[in-house]
Amino acid sequence: MSIEILPDLLGVFFFAVSGCLLAGRKGFDLIGSLLLGSLVGLGGGVARDVIIGQTPAAFSNPLYLAPPVLAALLVFWLYNSAEKIGRWLVVFDAAGLALFCITGTVKALSFGLNPVASVLLGVTTAVGGGLLRDVVANQVPQLFNSHDIYAIPAIIGAALAALSYTGGWLNIGTGFGIAVVVFSFRIAAWHFRWHAPLAVRKQKN
Amino acid sequence: MSIEILPDLLGVFFFAVSGCLLAGRKGFDLIGSLLLGSLVGLGGGVARDVIIGQTPAAFSNPLYLAPPVLAALLVFWLYNSAEKIGRWLVVFDAAGLALFCITGTVKALSFGLNPVASVLLGVTTAVGGGLLRDVVANQVPQLFNSHDIYAIPAIIGAALAALSYTGGWLNIGTGFGIAVVVFSFRIAAWHFRWHAPLAVRKQKN
Amino acid sequence: MSIEILPDLLGVFFFAVSGCLLAGRKGFDLIGSLLLGSLVGLGGGVARDVIIGQTPAAFSNPLYLAPPVLAALLVFWLYNSAEKIGRWLVVFDAAGLALFCITGTVKALSFGLNPVASVLLGVTTAVGGGLLRDVVANQVPQLFNSHDIYAIPAIIGAALAALSYTGGWLNIGTGFGIAVVVFSFRIAAWHFRWHAPLAVRKQKN
């Protein structure tokens, strides 16, 4: 657990910042920012832990409350313009995605789930917080944005994490390497507007 | 379980198709379609299993991942026009509703819940996936559409399933019969625009 | 449990009324009103119980189904104009908030969670139902409304409940007192439009 909690807390922080930034753009107040940051940072992990039948880390370990508080205060103090909020939101979201697809998968594997289920749960953890953020702020989730690619990096990261964990190669170095791959892929997909084929080949309305 | 898993998988498939069709109409890409299909097909059952305290079938049995994949591919290959998406969405949604109100109730009963709670959980399973679908796609849920009747067929189906299960009459034949009743009721309500009284007798925005 | 169930049922009723009123304003039908009332009244408590790993009270005790039914019928019979729906929605929502921040915290404490986690879970219970209500009805949650203060009264109420429970002073009198404080604070914040600082000091767009 001790080796796992730091990247998990970092992931909570990154997602919390993305939530607080969206709160800023939507004109929420500081408390709304703290709550949206908490929901985004902790939501995916709470869903994961509820699914595997554990008391969620957010409710058993008070340490998990620190990153959202820090995120809300940082966003409050550092942003006095909302010009670049959109860009930073994507960057912090990508960083959270990169860490959570790994920590979510590893937690599921260490809990005894099979690799396929663990990858699925890792992806759920990674995309869950951002999905909640966008649903609660009443906009179509980034996850379903067809202008770029969001879920594929998380799926690849979760699969690599499962492979390296099962093979016994997962350590701080390889974990960091996987996170960098996921983060870079996501940012590149956003920047260059890589996209997947549409759900139906020709749609209208 | 073996007798129960086939209708459950079929229900997952039907709901997944409804999710993929909505993804098509909203202009999501193929991955978004797969994810929305998975959320709709598996969401209700995951909620049900989390509530009764079991590891959700979607995460313990990889077979549950097949229907959403199949649904996304079918929708991708078969639809080259979105003209009739609305109609098919209602039909597949009704088919999922018809199966899940039965399988959800039976799973709750076989887990030892009392009949009232089991009916409630069956209805939750049946309407949960579609509710998630519409919330995530940022539209008012079909469940709350006052132009026709959505929940009543599911409540009737869950009650009939609980009655026949408790009475020992539930088998493939009676189960299929209940599903046909629910499906026909829902489709008729949609087609003929049967509706219930409004929540307040006279409303004004 | 017996001392706890009455305020809990009352809280369910108050939140259910707020859901049925919103259903009325949105033009939902009577069944949609019952379902939205149930979701709002029972949703926060179901989330709480799932997080602490218990079968939710709503599914184990059929008594919990009475308040939403009563709420839907009352709203149906008593409102023949929607003029004042907005005002009453806020009042009933505040009453539910006042009771749930206490009962949620006490349930978590009596289940053995630490005080910080219990306060967090109490707040989750209190704001969860209303959050679901607004998300499902496709509007930005009252929780994130920056025109007044919503979460702070719940946080204060949960903290006071945790303090008095731990100190052994919690009884019907002090519990009622805390609820009155929370309710009055929330209503005053709404009426006088007290508000917190914004999430970012200067926002645009």
Automatic annotation (TrEMBL), chains A, B, C:
InterPro entries: Gly_transporter. The chain crosses the membrane at residues 6-23, 30-51, 63-81, 88-110, 116-136, 148-166, 172-192. One of its GO terms (cellular component) is plasma membrane. Keywords: Cell membrane, Membrane, Transmembrane, Transmembrane helix. It is a multi-pass membrane protein. The keyword Transmembrane helix applies. It is found in: Cell membrane. Coiled coil: none annotated. Residues 7-79, 91-163 form the Glycine transporter domain. Belongs to the UPF0126 family. This is Membrane protein. It comes from Psychromicrobium lacuslunae.
